[in-house]
Amino acid sequence: MIIAFYPGAGGNRYLQRLLGNDWTRPLRSYDRHNTTQQSCHRYLLDHTPQTDSQYILTHCMNSQKIHQTFPGHAIVFIKSNLQASLKREWALHGHQQFQDQTVKNVPSRLEHYLAFRAPNWPRIDTEDQLDQLPVNIKQEVQIDYDNVINDVINVPDILTQLTQNIIDKVNSCHEIIQWHRNYYDQYPVDFGSAEQVIDIDSDADEFCSVMRTELNQYHSEIFDQVWDAIDEQ
Fold first, then answer.
1. Using only C-alpha atoms, what is the Rg of the chain?
2. Which of 52, 112, 123, 182 is the most buried (most CB within 10 A)?
3. Which residues span the domain enclosing 121?
4. Are 162 and 147 contained in the same domain?
């Protein structure tokens, strides 16, 4: 069975329900609980390897694309509001992933020395050789390296930090919204081959009730403003 759903719409939670596991805890992501889910199945891009897993989870919502990749599999679609789903995904994972990707890299001591060395200083190939440099060179190198590191990981004043946090949130919102809008423009939602369509907004079963509550837990003016700004472009 293929479970197709927007990011943040509870596909992993639904799978845990099918498996008879815990699935109802609020404000929680169940993404890490499905060890059989493969990242290459999330959007079915490029070459997607086949799998013998009983359940396949994907964020692709296009019947034709899914059947091209996994012919003959039954498809259960979880229908939800894209904005609300992505907002939940952004709050649970997206913003942190964005921050992890944009952290400045701290140069190694060897990289720093090779960039900083004067023409008449010794050439070295390993960090161990740094300890063999003349004392005056080692001291000069260490002073500059400390300055570089402090600049990279410098903790700014509170106002600057707050401003940067807002900028990061705007950028991470824009990234997740724009990427997924482009993706779903390329592969539009199509339930044509669905064995079942679970409608979170209107179905009365327990899963949909839990997910309506979940999606209503996540509020962000920044996310909504970025969404609206993209609408106006």
1. 24
2. 112
3. 109-152
4. no
If asked whether residues 162 and 206 sit together in one domain, one would say yes
Cβ atoms 63, 44 nearer than 8 A: no
Residues 96, 189: one domain?
yes
CA angle 104, 107, 111 (to 5 degrees): 150
Phi-psi region of 12 (alpha: psi -120 to 50; beta: other; left: phi over 0): alpha
What SS3 class is residue 180?
Answer: helix
> How far is it, in rounded angstroms, from Cα 118 to Cα 142?
14
78 in Cβ contact with 196 (< 8 Å): no
CB atoms within 10 A of CB 169: 18
Q: What is the rounded CA–CA span in Å between residue 77 and residue 60? A: 10
User: pLDDT by residue (tens digit) across 48-107?
Assistant: 878 888 999 999 999 999 999 999 999 999 999 999 999 999 999 876 776 666 555 567
